[in-house]
Amino acid sequence: MRFWWVVISVINCLSGSDSKTSEQAGDMTFSAVSRLANLRRHLDLTQIDNKVAQVSVVGGSVKVKVASEVSQALSLGRAVVALESTIISHGMPYPQNLETAIEVERIVRENGAVPATIAILDGTPCVGLSLEELKRLATLGTSAQKTARRDIANVVARGENGATTVSATMFFASMVNIPIFVTGGIGGVHRHGEHTMDVSSDLVELGKTPVAVVCAGVKSILDIPRTLEYLETLGVCTAAYKTNEFPAFFTESSGCKVSCRVDSPEDCARIIEASFTLNLGTGILIAVPIPQEHSTSGHIIESAIHKAIEEARENNITGSAETPFLLARVNDLTGGASLAANIALVKNNALVGAQVAVALAQIRKTCES
């Protein structure tokens, strides 16, 4: 009965009176469409446990574990922020990885959102990890498989442990209707990618999965201009936070302009809601520059990157092993400065991401009232 009442209300809003101006009618039309979209999301969310607890596969079923805190927040329309787990197992050494993971979740909570770190443990995809599960993942380190979208089925079928990358985390976040995902930086087109065709699946995922990704841009070990061109081809809205330039992960600027600038969490939330309401079917990239006080000297980082790339080629390190090698080597060459910068930018992204999630939840609550 409630559904039909809302539909009738929407029809009445759309019909309006002859005295209304076209501008007012347009606003009401958008509001009506927005209410329907939010209603659909609400109805979907009430069925989350059923939808993800039993996913049919040949010969059995796959269970996805959603933490009760996350499930409850989603059902109530509260702000939830997805977090990846590769940064824990492959991005940092122990114990900095565990300390950072705990701190990032704390920052998300303090800013009004519920954190949902995503990983695959013993073949079970988990959305939201307990402290013990975070500790387990941190101590597993690189023995947990780095899991992109292509690896999900294999890791689950074998009952293994997988640390989800951007693409896999986006997939699971979208499955349970988490709209915001925070990470350090995304993958992209690798340097000399025009010859190697080495392009991260993160970009493809952004082109087909409706999740907003808050990050510090593209890792500076990659080809940033070509990455932005590829994102444009995929139709991904790429926005820079409080700047007109796309950030370069360790440094604030890459020298590449963006077509979309956002200056507040509310700006971000409005774009995300418009994209979802229009059913564009793509992700949104919100690039947040590293805080100035933590930005290391660009030429030092760039010099270290070139040396690390040379060493990777000499040792025939390619594919999914290349990025962890390069990041670790750059950290060694810069005396730990890049790791400190990495931790600082992840925390800053968590702060912004939580604020965006809260603003988005408020917009949806207002539309539904």
From TrEMBL:
Pfam families named among the record's database cross-references: Indigoidine_A
Record-level GO cellular component terms: cytoplasm
Single GO molecular function: pseudouridylate synthase activity
Keywords carried by this UniProt record: Glycosidase, Hydrolase, Lyase, Manganese, Metal-binding, Signal
Coiled coil: none
Signal peptide: 1-19
Superkingdom of source: Eukaryota
InterPro entries linked: Indigdn_synthA-like (IPR022830), PsuG (IPR007342)
HAMAP family in alphabetical order: PsiMP_glycosidase
Listed name of the protein: Pseudouridine-5'-phosphate glycosidase
Source organism: Phaseolus coccineus
